[in-house]
From TrEMBL:
Endpoints of the signal sequence: 1-20
Keywords in alphabetical order: Acyltransferase, Cell shape, Cell wall biogenesis/degradation, Lipoprotein, Peptidoglycan synthesis, Signal, Transferase
Superkingdom, taxonomy of origin: Bacteria
Name by which UniProt lists this protein: Lipoprotein-anchoring transpeptidase ErfK/SrfK
Amino acid sequence: MRKRVTALLLAGLVLAGCSAEVQSGSAKPEGGDKPPVAKFTTAPADGATEVPVNQPVTVTVAEGTIDEVTLTNPEGKAVEGKVAADKKTWSSAEALGYGKSYTYAGKATGTDGKKVELKGAFTTVTPASVVRATLFPADDQTVGVAVPIMVQFDAEVTDRAAAEKALTVTNSANVKGSWAWLNAKEVHYRPEAYWPANTKVHVEAKLYGVHYGGGAYGKADVTSDFTIGRNQVVKIETGSHQLVVQRDGQTVATYPASFGKDDDPELTTPNGTFVVMQKDAQWSFDNPRYGYTNVLKKWAVRFSNHGEFIHENNDNAGNIGRVNSSHGCANLLEADAKAYYDSALIGDPVEVTGSITTLPAQYDWYDWQIPWAQWQTMSAL
């Protein structure tokens, strides 16, 4: 009996030893073998290629909060970014570069208290070509009430709608206008009627990263802040032999003039609403077809790329105010030409009537020769 009892006691001690190891094993924190609950989501995804450069990068964590996030460019520099107040999202705050690889890194703490790490990378799009755009009027210019806003591209734009969507115009007068494509490399904006005087205008062309089609992308964003000046309109009724300057609808100057020949459709000053494009204290006029080159005239104000100017021509003084004898320009006496020149702004309208010829809408800047209803159809949107 003693041997059997001893054996039972020994067996009991062995069993007690196995139970202690199990108990020791069960002393680990509950759920210690479960994966962390926090999960990172990135846009673009890890491994993505051909990523647009003009869209923000975002990192989001579910069931946790972000401790830190870094997006690094190939040069090892961190891309600017910010974690939201709720620590659920990080967003980049600067544009990416073309054809570059970026690397994600970060940490988050889950609602279970466990840490998770972010790792990944993506590559941005590599353009077949990069297209530059310029914007007119430029910053701080004061221009006339007929000025069009112009965006010019150094290559043809296939996807005009994509480019136009990146263009916005705001102004202090809350005047609405429309963009119109004059050709594949140039889009203009104007209101239905002349700009109100003294309007402040802001233009944004957020073209960097915009795909124009065929692998061509925008090179850079461009902006402009300019001012519409006083309302000054030149009115030319060719049969009157006078050039009239009006401000706010009131005549402020009347100058005797000689316009283009009345009976020659090639030489008359044509009908239309034109825009002052250029001012030069002296300009060289050339027209070999009519036998003159390098004829210098003072106070030249161009209002059409067809070749029309308002300028001094004292050599034609006998006809000024009496007979239309020029080759299409408005000839003034020197003192009058200087007075008008000093008053003119780029963008002032020049309205011509009474001619036997109406110029087709094809010589810059011809924006106001296109009826408003037609102008709106020239938008890509």
